[in-house]
Amino acid sequence: ASISAVLKNAGYSVELYHQCYMPDEKEFIEKVQSFNPDLIGFTARTTAIPFITEMCSWLKQSVPEKMVIIGGYHPTLVPEEVLAIEGCDAVVVGEGEYPTLELMDCMSKGEDYTNSQSIFFKTPEGDIIKNPIRPLLENLDELPFPDFELFDFENLDRSKNFTAMVMLSRGCLFSCTYCGNSQFRNVYPNKSKYSRFRSPQKSIELLELLLKKYPFIKFLEFRDAIFNMYKDWFYEFMPMYIERINLPFNCNLRFDMLDEDMVRMLKEGGCYMIDIGLETGNEEFRTKYLRRKMKNDHII
Length: 300
What we know:
Layout: H1 2-9, H2 25-35, E1 39-43, H3 49-62, E2 67-71, H4 73-77, H5 79-83, E3 90-92, H6 97-109, E4 119-122, E5 128-130, E6 163-166, E7 169-170, H7 181-185, E8 196-197, H8 200-213, E9 219-222, H9 231-244, E10 249-253, H10 260-268, E11 271-276, H11 283-288, H12 296-299
Parallel strand pairs: 1-2, 2-3, 6-9, 9-10, 10-11
Antiparallel strand pairs: 3-4, 4-5, 7-8
Helix pairs in contact: 1-6, 8-9, 9-10
């Protein structure tokens, strides 16, 4: 939705094929051809790679002239592995909004696009062109709001329960050993800026826009890695939320970033549930192997 918003602001048209199941080849190709895209993009987490591999082979056979690009978690960490997929022409390493826009601008002008930052390309001979990684966008307020209308929003699973899933941030401050964030951060030349929130004011405006478009929403589910990651942000955001939004919500927190004042404000703001990872009750194991430096007595 964020990539779509950036591309649409630049005058490009974007269509989403939102796959909730693995289609057969005929259905898939007919859908793609109905869009008639110049660029076909997949977003890929690791578990989706086997399905995307099969769909890329269908595209290679049916519409070989179409360019296929894959982005997301998996290509960011192992781009060469993803480029080896037959039918994959390029991968995006890291956040995709402005690399995709740069690529589209070059394609629309008929210019050489193989030096687009943050994109690796596979040549017809099978070689790989590795371009420098674009610094991540440090100020999320510079991004347009997500293109909510890209999805069939009213028929999403959460929407059927009158709930909207929202993210106001990107990244995480911590480097738990079992989580990808520690590796995603290292992709960027300005990795110290990896953990970012939209400003409290812009965050509220995003929520107001969402609720204006979909007034049936009664609950919010914040999927930010750590909702209280920055105390200054939290204590500025929550009074505005209470005044202007005031819907029941749930969120993710960490034990070692939580105190009584925060709990009181969360309750006042309508928080009805929090998700916190305990991982293990063994403090030594938690600290030494998971890099979660939390004391048992504080957790209790």
